[in-house]
Amino acid sequence: MVSLQAEEKPLPLQLEAYARECSRLLPGEPPLVFGDWGEAFDFVERQARTGGALVVILDEFQYLVASDPGLESTIQRFWDRWDSDGVPVLLILSGSALSFMDQLLSGARPTYGRSAFRPLLLPLTYRDCSAFAQAKSSPANLIERFAVFGGTPQYQRWAGQRPLFDAIERTCLLPDAPLHSDPEHLIREEAGIREPGPYFGTLQAIAEGYTGTSAIAGRLQIKQQLATKFLSRLLELGYVARVEPLEPGGRAAGRGYWKIADPYFRFWFRYVFPNRSRLARGRTKELLTEIRRDLSTFVGRIFEDCCREWVGRYSSLGDGALEIGSWWSRQSDVEVDIVTLTKKGYGLLGSCKWSTRQVGENVLDDLYVVRGILGRPAATARLVLFSRSSFTRAVRARAADENVTLVDVADLF
Fold first, then answer.
1. What is the pLDDT at residue 197?
2. Secondary structure of 344-382 in the HEC alphabet?
C-alpha cells in the first residue's frame, strides 16, 4: 500500500513526498525521484504488474490538483489502461473539501464515470471518539473533549491524549497549531465561495447566538434575502444544519433555527475566530481562562446532541422511533430537549442538564408540565432525565415509583 496525505505545497514537493512513500515498497534501493505524476503512476503500474495487487491512497486530493491541474487527466489515462488491462491497482481519492470531491464525478470532469465506490465518511460518534482519549478519562471529560474536537478523526489525533485545556492550547489556540486555521482553509477551498468573508460572518453570528435568519441578517447588517443565500450554501456544504421542532403532524419549519453542524467549527467560531488578533499577540493564556469559565455553557448543547445520539443509536429507548429531535413552543417559553416520534405520537420526552449540581425534583416536575402541554400525543410518553452529576435521592425515589428513566453521563458510554 502507498498512502499520501497531501498538504498545501508546490508540485515538486508533492511528488517528493509521494516518492518517499513509494520507496517503502523497495527497501534497500536508492530513493525514487518522479518528475511528474505520469512517472509516479508508471512506477505504480510496474509494481502492480510484477508484485501483485497494490492500493494507492491520495488523501486531501484537492491539494494535489491545486498544485497540478492536469492530474485528473493523468489519472483518467492511467485508470482506463489499468481497467482494460486488468492491472490490480485500487486507487482511492479522498479529501475534506466536500464540494470539490463531489464534483470530481460530474459530467465535465476527466474522472466522470470512473468511480467503483463513492462513500461519504460521516463524523465519528462521541463514543467512537472516546478511543482517542486517555483511558482514565471520566465520562464528563469525554463529553467535553467531543464538544471541542468533534468527530473528525484527524482532529482527535491532533488533540492526542493530553488533558483537555492543554490540548485546546496546543492544538487550537497557538498561531502555528494544526487546528488554528483549519476551518478557514476548508471554507476557502469550497467551490462557489469566492468571497468567504460573509460566510465567516454568518457562522460567527450563529456561534454568538444569532440563530434565526432575520437575526443573522441583522447581526451582519445585510438584507434577509442575502443571509438566506449564505445559509443555503453553507447548508449544501454541510457546515450548518436547520433544527425544527418535532410534532406528530410534521416539523414546525416556521419555528426552526440554524446551528453549526460540527462541534469543532462551533468551538472555533465561538472562541478562536473572533480572537485571532489577541492570539497573534500571545494572549493565549488569557483566552484559555475565558474558555474555562464559559465551557460548561458551551458543552450543554453538545451534551444534548450526545443524549439524542445515545437514544437513537445505543439505547432501547429509541426502539420504534421514527424521528428523534426536540420541541419548543411558538413563544420558546416551553422546551423539551429530547423527543422521539412514533406512529402513535411522542414516545419519549427527555430533559438534559449539564450542571455540576445534581438534578432535583423541579426538573422532573417541569417535564410533567410539558407532557400536559403537549396533550394527548404525549400522554403515554416515557419521561427521561439526563444528568452530568447524577440525581438527588428524592428524584431517585420518585423515578422508581413513577416509572421515570434516569440516565447518568456514564450510561452514555
1. 93
2. CEEEEEEEEECCCCCECHHHHHHHHHHHHHHCHHHCCCE
CA angle in degrees (0–180, nearest 5) for 231-148-268 = 45
Residue 97: predicted pLDDT:
79
> Burial code of 80-103, b = ≥16 C-beta within 10 A, e = fewer?
eebeeeebebebebebbbbbbbee
CATH fold of 126-300, please? Answer: Arc Repressor Mutant, subunit A (1.10.10)
Cα 377 to Cα 157, 247, 271, distances in angstroms: 45, 9, 41
CA angle 200, 253, 152 (to 5 degrees): 45
How far apart, in whole angstroms, are the C-alpha atoms of residue 376 and residue 372? Answer: 8
Q: Count of CB atoms within 10 A of residue 70's CB? A: 13
Local structure of residue 390 (DSSP, 8 states): -
Q: Domain spans of the chain?
A: 2-103, 126-300, 315-412
Q: What is the CATH number of domain 315-412?
A: 3.40.1350.10
217-243 per-position pLDDT tens digit: 999 999 999 999 999 999 988 999 999
Inter-residue contact 338 to 381 (CB < 8 Å): no
CATH annotation of 2-103: 3.30.370
